[in-house]
């Protein structure tokens, strides 16, 4: 069994033996014996071929599909992505995590990987779908990256959809603050929000927005 831990903020170490899953190209170094193979269909275990095809199609059609490799072996496996900061989320059995696929770095086999519809990306780069992980066992860990130090918030809270990285628990609502000033270019530019109304869950955002939204104004 592998466990993840943060190494000097900008990298993650997977230590142990067995196997885990990582974003293709995530490895920067390792100690021990490891092999990596590309996951062609689906990383979920004990699943029929049909369901694997369906999950792959859902990821491709939703834009949430990224190249994933299965890493097997024993020792210490170092991972990073473009000097981004790393965070590790440990899930209780049955708990779910919504993650932006571009921020995903690695996860353990105790996580079921799928796609879920959230429908809150009409006017941002957030998109209508997000990657979803559900804890199926006692060692469910997901590693994510952020541009800059992660900002960890406890719900309830309201966040910019272009800054969100991941969240536990139920999906957020979508709120728009649009009026005549929006179309005259007289607003602050913060007109669309993700609203998390549950209590005691966690939202991670990054101090770097994806470029998106509507830019309408009159010169």
Describe the structure.
- The protein has two helices and 16 strands.
- It is globular.
- The protein has 219 residues and is mostly beta strands.
- Strands 1, 2, 3, 4, 5, 7 and 10 form a seven-stranded antiparallel beta sheet that branches. The chain has a six-stranded antiparallel beta sheet with strand order 8-9-6-13-16-11.
- The chain has one domain (2-205): Double-stranded beta-helix (4-Layer Sandwich), CATH 3.60.160.
- The termini are far apart.
- InterPro entries: AIM24, AIM24_sf, Trp_RNA-bd_attenuator-like_dom.
Mean pLDDT, rounded to whole units?
A: 82
The CATH superfamily turns out to be Mitochondrial biogenesis AIM24
The largest β sheet comes out as:
7 strands, antiparallel
Oligomeric state of shown chains:
single chain
Cα shape: globular
Would you report the number of β strands? 16
Figure out the total of helices: 2
Helices and strands, in N-to-C order? EEEHEEEEEEEEEEEHEE
Instruction: Tell me the structural class.
Output: mainly beta
How much strand content do the residues show? over 45%
Rg computed from alpha carbons, rounded to a whole number of angstroms: 18 Å
Helix content: under 10%
CATH architectural arrangement: 4-Layer Sandwich
Per the CATH scheme, the topology name is Double-stranded beta-helix
**End-to-end C-alpha gap:** 60 Å
Please write the CATH class name: Alpha Beta
Question: How many structural domains does the protein architecture include?
Answer: 1
InterPro entries: AIM24, AIM24_sf, Trp_RNA-bd_attenuator-like_dom
Pfam family, one: AIM24
Protein name: AIM24 family protein
Organism: Peptoclostridium litorale DSM 5388
